[in-house]
Amino acid sequence: MKHLKWALAAAMVSVFLGLAPAANAQTGECSDLNGDGTVDTVSVNGYSVTIYSGGGTSRTYNLSSWSTMQIVELDGLAGCELLFTQSSSLAVVTHRTGTTDTYSVGSWSTMTYTDLDGVAGNEVYMTSGSYINVVTHRTKTKNSYNVGSWSTLSYRDLDGYAGNELYLTSGTDLKVITQRTQSLKSYYIGSWSTMQPIETDGKTGEELVFTTGATITILCHRDAATRVYNVSGWSSMSYYNQDGLPGEELVFIMGTRPFVVNDARRTTYYL
Ligand SMILES: [Ca+2]
Ligand SMILES: [Ca+2]
Ligand SMILES: [Ca+2]
Ligand SMILES: [Ca+2]
Question: Which of 189, 215, 219, 225 is nearest to 207 (CA)?
């Protein structure tokens, strides 16, 4: 691990000296690249990357120009992969098999990875205008979702099945990408002022809670439903487990009295 970190540190120093590629170690855990359980060393030379393993063996991968390199578990099999961003593509070196795969993603603006399908290995998602492209290196596939104009994008487990869902705001709509089922679902929320993920219904998967003036809208993607509660006149909102049963309650100050939205029991009451 130490050798790997040193090699990456050296690569980062070269960035400060004016070379283009930048290498970043994502976690200290990803130090084995060929899956044999021992530490490998990565050395960057221009756009070429050489991986040194034990016993004097090495292998060099010659990539076309790239801008960032990260070490990430992408296929769920032993040994981490090298993930490279390029101007309109993503390249993955699977050192275990000695292969390089390239995924065309068009011109893109952000790149993130997390487990999106509940199967071992991270999926990579990239934003590209009104498209979100998801690369599943395990199956060597890419899915493109046309989400239209959007403003915020994040991920959480929203349905209780393993893997995170992507969710994004789009005007008065909230859209959810469930990569596990390769589906895009849109929910009408209306105009809202704040949004936060809270587990309110006592079932696995987080709900999205929107303040919408005199009402609260709770989006439960697991149920593919929105629930609206009247909280006219509220002045502050907090949430905690008020009734001791699964799920957080939303607690508002209504005048001088605490008012509870108990989404798990689908009811509201004053304390
Ligand atoms: Ca792997
Ligand atoms: Ca996965
Ligand atoms: Ca999920
Ligand atoms: Ca829930």
Answer: 219
Structural domain range at position 119: 105-188
Contacts of residue 244, Cβ cutoff 8 Å, sequence gap at least 6: none
| Pair 101, 140: CB distance under 8 Å | yes
Instruction: Give the max Cα distance, the chain.
Output: 74
Q: Are residues 63 and 4 in the same domain?
A: yes
pLDDT tens digits along 25-38: 444 568 899 999 99
Ligand closest in space to the Cα of 222: 4
CA of 100 to the centre of ligand 2 (A): 19
For the chain, how far is it from start to end, CA to CA, in angstroms? 55
Helical segments of 29-175, H only: none
Ligand 1 midpoint to CA 146 (Å) = 29
Q: Which ligand is nearest to the CA of 81?
A: 1
148 and 90 inside one domain: no
* pLDDT tens, position by position, 218-235: 999 999 999 999 999 999
CB 122 within 8 A of CB 73: yes
- Span from the CA of 115 to the centroid of ligand 3 (angstroms): 9
